[in-house]
Amino acid sequence: MAATKTSTATRTTAPSPTPRGRPPTPGLREHILAAAVRVFAKHPFHKVRVEDVALEAGVAKGTVYRYFTNKEEVYLASLFQGIDGLQEELDRVAAAEPDPVQRLGALVKSLLEFFWGRDLFFLLLHRNEEERNAPHVRAWLVRRQQFARLIARTLQEGIAAGRIRRVNVRLATEALLGMLRGVHRYRGPGDTPEESANVVVDVFLHGVLARSPSKSPVLFRRKP
Question: CA–CA separation, 156 vs 159, rounded Å?
Answer without folding.
Answer: 5
